[in-house]
Amino acid sequence: MATQSGCYESVTEFYANTDVFITGGTGFLGKVLIEKLLRSCPDIGRIFVLMRSKRGKSIETRVAELFDCPLFDRLKEENKSATGKIVPIYGDITQKRLGMYEEDIQRLSGVSVAFHLAASIRFDDPLRDAIKTNICSTQELLEILKCTATKLRAVVHVSTAYSNPENRNVEEKLYPAKYDWKKLVQAVDRYESETMNALAEKLSHNSPNTYTYTKGLAEQVCNDYCSEVPLAIVRPSVVMFTIQEPMAGWVDNFNGPTGMLISAGIGITRTGYLPPRNRINLVPVDVVVKTIILAAWKRGTIERTAGPKHLPIYNSAVTYEQSMEYQEMLDRGKDYLFRVPFSRMLWIPRGFPTESKVLYYFSLIFTMLLPCYLLDLLIRMLGHKPFLMKLQVRIYGSEVALRYFAWNEWTFEKKQADNLPFLLDEKDRNTFGWVLPETLTGKYLENAYIPMRRYLMKDPDETIPYAQRKLARMELAERIILIITWCLLLVAFYKSVFAGSV
């Protein structure tokens, strides 16, 4: 595929000797992006990563810990020196100028490509916080790059496929703004959080949460800057485990379905209020990363002479047929959980989702809340700090926050995203292209289970035999409890029916 000048510039050539700036580089998506850039673009220049001190750890310590992650094992085997290309930059996306020191901003003068991944993905953030994190940060970044990065060739803003959730069929286009983002930015400086929250429903036009609302408006920020900055937007759906690179099944957070499977696996979650036959659009994180890398490449090569107001948008998602039914995802999850259980499970992984609100709350009270309350009492009597009810409250809060997405379904147009690999030559396509199976429910989910067990639950493979024995004991105990319960019920029934005739 030729660029507009008639000469093909490969992806690796585009990134060679190129300085890159990344916000959100320590998040799930950011880590996979950094790993792919370092491994597949070995001649890349410096990668500046915006980060802040966290839990008393300096940004240098956080970078060192970043590379201790198993995600980077393949990179360290193939090109260990590549990790030296990461340059941490102190900052905070909620602050003016991204909280960066002026000398660090000047270090970005040679940056050619920027990726804006940083965002708050909490659905229940106060409106003021969500505006600062998702809208203000986007404006601050684009202002800095516009004034500082004189060699800028491409900026990719990572949005979400649910930035306009009222549209059930999401096209690869910019939708009308729900509000003037500039007025909201001004309101952040004028009003306290309580005032903003009181106005949230009116300002957001009944958006389901502050996350989707502010991410949608962040796209409007990009639209207003696209004449001055070479921008592209990538909208991922629900970003989940890697399907292939650098290892199959890697994930490092408890968000969404991952948390659901793990809490079910330790025996805490026994039910969910959702339509079991609805589908969830999961997209592998390594596919999203390739889309982001290619979106920047295309914007900086093929589209580098595009006219003003050019703003390409890519929906990084799967087809409706490739998406997963909740019921099938949970059934397969339970199958894996019984084959390779967690060693720290509290009870047998059972339960089911339901569309009945009555059945859901009955199950919630008697199979989740009441047992946890009683166990917390026992834990307290043994002199330890109770934690199960607190955990259940968090799980319930997450379930309520996700309910809107569980009860609705979307389809995503993705012609532009799917076309990206076909713009590449054969060598680049082998490195940066992707082919997804007809359905993601089978091997994709199965490959994720062991890494989830190892890296999220910190459950080494050596504990599998112990966990299997523990599960067998629990199943035996469950049978004994059921037998005793039925016997007591039969005795009670016998006494109530025959006691008066004796």
UniProtKB/TrEMBL annotation:
The keyword Membrane applies. Residues 368-459 form the Fatty acyl-CoA reductase C-terminal domain. One of its GO terms (cellular component) is peroxisome. It catalyses: a long-chain fatty acyl-CoA + 2 NADPH + 2 H(+) = a long-chain primary fatty alcohol + 2 NADP(+) + CoA. Its EC number is 1.2.1.84. Keywords: Lipid biosynthesis, Lipid metabolism, Membrane, NADP, Oxidoreductase, Transmembrane, Transmembrane helix. One of its GO terms (molecular function) is alcohol-forming long-chain fatty acyl-CoA reductase activity. Coiled coil: none annotated. The chain crosses the membrane at residues 358-379, 476-494. Residues 22-292 form the Thioester reductase (TE) domain. It holds the Pfam family NAD_binding_4. It comes from the Eukaryota. SUPFAM superfamilies: NAD(P)-binding Rossmann-fold domains. One of its GO terms (biological process) is long-chain fatty-acyl-CoA metabolic process. The keyword Transcription regulation does not apply. Belongs to the fatty acyl-CoA reductase family. PANTHER family: FATTY ACYL-COA REDUCTASE (PTHR11011:SF24), MALE STERILITY PROTEIN 2-RELATED (PTHR11011). Catalyzes the reduction of fatty acyl-CoA to fatty alcohols. This is Fatty acyl-CoA reductase. It comes from Anopheles dirus.
